[in-house]
Q: What sequence folds into this?
């Protein structure tokens, strides 16, 4: 059976976006710069990223060079005000109605009624050059924006207008985007305020807290880390990062870094958090240019290999490793173990990646083949190919490979045939599907003619396919009247692939039945010669055993002379 290498649920997928908030107690520490660069690093590492500007009072993401020219149709501030308007209008409607049941009231105030589907997607802009990176701005910066901002009372939104529901629903709508982001990066407001608190407290899986190594910043960061670590029921993971590290006053820097480490480790001392040291603490250096220039260093050649790129990549690595939902992390780890021949460990990571929902056609195709041929797990192989078809229903290769998996179950032959025909409906020129369909049909004595037709169509598309010629030969050899045609097919197979051992053995059997023992001996001898060059495998061992039995039968029958039998015995012993 053929597998096609194309670069194009039994376990319920648990994959969802991983929410990361960049926060700082004080402003001016390089938080937005870090958020943009880490978002870009994740996007460059094949993750789909949504970057959200949640600094409503001082939005800055759209001022970066990479974002400034992108269309801005509004943003978070507009979503909040639309929600507030919908909530007020709904309450007014409820008051006007004389009789309204509790159920009707609950329905009118349901999140999806107050927060209309599609509103989030309409405000998101995908970067035209970096397709994995999208933006949700704070809003369109103009006089109207600041009017909306000054009228926004966050305390009232939470206490009177069920603001918690708004932010929870926003999170759900982001998770339901198509395509769904792998990571959502929030650039939060500095300090402690009602307006900047939702992305720090309500949303994140991970909070990255940037801190300049001075006492004011360290004390403020200590307060924030402590408060977040005590959040119930599920505190976010925390990653403190020192920033604006000066190359001067090194003794003072050392003292302040030790002070910061003492504070950080006191709070992060849990079973899951590893202690921070001067070596593993992420420290973003100060650079005077970054005070004036607003751009992404991750895409600038002059910054490649710099300390800044290195530290941003460390943050990127920390984010990925802390995210249990990152299928690509698990898949890459599996590939690393697979290449080290640690199959059992690799298998666990492959299983996890598949259960999370792989979103790459290339990886799904490769994994489906591995599950089938290496791990012999037809259930997961089928899931991989079905997931691939969900991603791309018009992939003829995926339908063909799915048919190949289904054909191995005697009870699912009909499903397999349907898959092959689906593949051929999409691409009538897919010779691999025709070949596999021919193999399936040839198993039914009543459908030999259809099988032959399928093989011949495959050969019309690819006349240099030795395997199809060989299969056609086997099919024709079942008819005593078509032995000559069968022989021609086998010879054609050998002409294309001179080491096709199956065709040589088929010709040996054919000639033995015809009584042409001289040619039969030559074909048998050539098969043993080819077998010697074959790598060790269960197939080779099984074939050697069968050929030894065949030589014994030939010796008993006397069809080959003692000299020829002796020659064959020596050749097979050398294997």
A:
């Amino acid at each position: 059976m053929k597998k096609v290498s194309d670069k194009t649920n039994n376990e319920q997928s648990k994959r969802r976006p991983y929410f990361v908030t960049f926060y700082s107690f004080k402003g001016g520490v390089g938080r937005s710069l870090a958020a943009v660069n880490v978002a870009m690093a994740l996007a460059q590492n094949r993750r789909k990223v949504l970057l959200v500007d949640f600094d409503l009072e001082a939005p800055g993401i759209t001022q970066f060079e990479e974002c400034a020219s992108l269309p801005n149709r509004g943003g978070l501030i507009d979503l909040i005000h639309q929600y507030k308007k919908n909530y007020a209008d709904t309450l007014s409607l409820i008051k006007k109605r004389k009789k309204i049941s509790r159920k009707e009231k609950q329905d009118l105030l349901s999140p999806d009624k107050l927060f209309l589907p599609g509103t989030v997607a309409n405000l998101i802009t995908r970067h035209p050059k970096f397709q994995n990176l999208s933006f949700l701005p704070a809003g369109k910066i103009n006089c109207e924006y600041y009017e909306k901002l000054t009228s926004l009372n966050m305390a009232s939104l939470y206490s009177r207008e069920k603001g918690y529901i708004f932010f929870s629903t926003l999170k759900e709508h982001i998770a339901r985007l198509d395509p769904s982001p792998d990571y959502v990066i929030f650039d939060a407001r500095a300090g402690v305020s009602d307006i900047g608190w939702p992305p720090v407290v309500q949303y994140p899986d991970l909070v990255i807290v940037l801190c300049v190594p001075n006492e004011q910043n360290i004390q403020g960061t200590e307060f924030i880390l402590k408060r977040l670590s005590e959040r119930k029921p599920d505190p976010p993971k925390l990653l403190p990062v020192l920033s604006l590290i000066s190359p001067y006053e090194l003794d003072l820097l050392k003292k302040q870094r030790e002070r910061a480490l003492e504070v950080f480790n006191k709070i992060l001392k849990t079973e899951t958090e590893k202690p921070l040291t001067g070596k593993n603490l992420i420290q973003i250096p100060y650079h005077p240019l970054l005070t004036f220039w607003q751009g992404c260093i991750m895409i600038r050649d002059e910054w490649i290999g710099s300390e800044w790129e290195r530290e941003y990549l460390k943050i990127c690595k920390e984010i990925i490793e802390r995210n249990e939902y990152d299928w690509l992390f698990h898949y890459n780890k599996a590939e690393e173990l697979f290449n080290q021949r640690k199959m059992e460990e690799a298998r666990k990571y492959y299983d996890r990646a598949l259960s999370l929902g792989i979103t790459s056609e290339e990886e799904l195709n490769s994994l489906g083949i591995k599950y089938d041929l290496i791990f012999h797990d037809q259930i997961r192989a089928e899931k991989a190919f079905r997931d691939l078809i969900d991603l791309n229903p018009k992939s003829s290769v995926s339908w063909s490979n799915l048919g190949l998996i289904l054909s191995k179950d005697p009870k699912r032959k009909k499903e397999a045939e349907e898959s092959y025909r689906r593949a051929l409906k999409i691409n009538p020129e897919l010779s691999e599907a025709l070949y596999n369909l021919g193999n399936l049909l040839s198993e039914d004595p009543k459908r030999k003619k259809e099988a032959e037709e399928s093989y011949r169509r495959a050969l019309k598309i690819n006349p240099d396919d030795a395997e199809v010629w060989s299969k056609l030969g086997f099919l024709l050899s079942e008819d005593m009247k078509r032995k000559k045609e069968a022989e021609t097919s086998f010879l054609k197979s050998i002409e294309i692939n001179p080491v096709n051992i199956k065709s040589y053995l088929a010709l040996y059997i054919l000639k033995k039945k015809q009584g042409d023992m001289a040619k039969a001996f030559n074909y048998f001898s050539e098969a043993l010669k080819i077998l010697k060059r074959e790598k060790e495998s269960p197939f080779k061992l099984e074939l050697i055993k069968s050929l030894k039995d065949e030589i014994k039968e030939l010796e008993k029958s006397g069809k080959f002379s003692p000299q020829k039998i002796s020659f064959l015995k020596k050749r097979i012993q050398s294997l």
